Amino acid sequence: MMDQAQKLRQIIDNLKVRDAVALDNPVGVKEKNAKVITVTSGKGGVGKTNFTINLAIALSELGQRVTILDADFGLANVDILLGIVPKYTLVDVLYNRRNILEALTDGPKNIKFMSGGSGVEELVKLDGTQLEKFVNNISLLDKLSDVILIDTGAGLSDSVMSFVMAADEVFLVTTPEPTSITDAYALIKMVSNRDNNKIIKVVVNRAENANEAKDILNRLSIVAEKFLAMKLYPLGFVPQDESVIKAVKMQQPFSLSFPKSDAAKQIKEISRRLMEGNADITNRQESGIKGFVRRLVNLMNA
Ligand SMILES: Nc1ncnc2c1ncn2[C@@H]1O[C@H](COP(=O)(O)OP(=O)(O)OP(=O)(O)O)[C@@H](O)[C@H]1O
Ligand SMILES: [Mg+2]
User: Which domains does the chain have, with CATH numbers?
Assistant: First the structure.
């Protein structure tokens, strides 16, 4: 049963979609596209998928329309952590078996997600015409979302680098472990070799406390600036929290099962920070998912 607030919300969401479609006119008015953010890490298993899902929920609660694209080709993480099995994946869209809407699965709190499956690797096999058709299909995501969060596997492979370089922004997750920090730095270095102006926002996950996180963010920013001429943007931290582990076992997002947990509080804090100020995720004209996919395919073919 939907309560009053949810119904109102849905009506407003539908209006937004209609508005966006109405804006898509032949007179050349610039439409607002989704911001495409790649979530990655140097080392694997640092908490990317948990961060992505719970941040998506927090942003959604602040009124953002959020879509998660699961681009972890090895293991489909997002659906497991949500406890939802999607009917179709990106592959079905690529081969015109299903349209984008059919491949979008509803998650909690109005978030949507799409499983990449093996579709990401198949992208490079499309010829020019097929690719253009796909790009046009997937551009519907720009109208349905304000933010697209792409959950990737650990970051030092070529394919993940392509996702990183093609995105409007990168959220880099690290833990306080020296190995994780070292690999995060290695990733920043790889990015800096390709584009010194890439926006990388760093999150420390599993931190013991705020001070530990602050210290890591500071030190990482200083070395990146000094040795790589890269400016990093500290995004915040998520504490080490038993609630996360419990929620994973329940296949539920921790911010829903344990909304009062310290981890959930920090995720909310991060989502608020993202919505504030100039570095926010709402007020910029982006090239959207269309531009992203074109850049991605170019990078993967390079
Ligand atoms: N803040 C946290 N507090 C406690 N445990 C955590 C926290 N974040 C993550 N974990 C633990 O780490 C595990 C891995 O998290 P997650 O699957 O989100 O990592 P990942 O970076 O997406 O991994 P992969 O690189 O394999 O995709 C979780 O199952 C959980 O047990
Ligand atoms: Mg993952």
Answer: 33-301 (3.40.50.300)
Say how many Å lie between the CA of residue 75 and the centre of ligand 1: 13
Q: How far is CA 164 from CA 36, 41, 138, 252, in A?
A: 10, 10, 19, 27
Average pLDDT score over the chain: 88
| Long-range CB contact pairs, 5-14, < 8 A, 24+ | 9/110, 13/65, 13/110
Say how far apart CA 153 and CA 40 lie, in whole Å.
7
Report the sign of the C-alpha dihedral through residues 84, 169, 141, 62, in that order: positive
Closest ligand 1 atom number to CA of residue 46: 21
Strand, coil or helix: what is 52? helix
pLDDT tens sequence across 193-202: 999 999 999 9
pLDDT digits (tens, 9 = 90+) for 86-117: 999 999 999 888 999 999 999 999 999 999 88
- Average of per-residue pLDDT across 242-250: 97
How far is it, in rounded angstroms, from Cα 80 to Cα 72?
12
pTM above 0.85, yes or no: yes
Cβ–Cβ < 8 Å for 194, 165? yes
**48 alpha carbon to ligand 1 midpoint, in Å?**
7
Task: Report pLDDT for 15.
Answer: 52
Rounded Cα gap, residues 115 and 87, in angstroms:
9
pLDDT of residue 7: 59
Determine the distance separating the centroid of ligand 1 and the alpha carbon of 234, expressed in angstroms. Answer: 20
Ligand 1 mutation target, pool 46, 50, 174, most atoms within 8 A of CB: 50
